[in-house]
Amino acid sequence: MRYNEIVAITGLSGLYQLISTKSDGAIVKNLDDNTTKFVAARSHNVTPLDSIEVFTNTDNVRLFDVFQSFKSNEASLEGITGKSDNKTISTAFAKLFPDYDKDRVYVSDMKKMIKWYAILKKLDLLNVPEEKEDEAHENPTA
Length: 142
Prior knowledge:
Layout: E1 6-9, E2 16-22, E3 25-30, E4 36-40, E5 46-48, E6 53-54, E7 61-62, H1 63-72, H2 86-96, H3 107-122, H4 130-138
Antiparallel strand pairs: 1-2, 1-5, 2-3, 3-4, 6-7
Helix pairs in contact: 2-3
């Protein structure tokens, strides 16, 4: 499984692997319990993680880059889960990713990112994204 196959689905918690798309929805696999299901396009939006950006005080930052910041400041995540209280979450998030826009990134967003980070870490999917690896293969040095 690759990072660019992972999606978030509105109305459903957790992360999913995109298996296949259809005209009326998508077939996905839950990364927590490995169950496969069909999600209807009229009821849910399927969003790839590699298309999500986080608001900062300057330019928006890709979610993967936020996760890399989490990874390098992982000591600040000790004991923090998506179920921690709001003050604890916002304090930890400020240490993990200090550049975020405090007016446009809500605690609910922070909780999601912390939960998603834990899932990706457990599945060892926090390595270099595929497009960077593909670029290295396309441009070999002489």
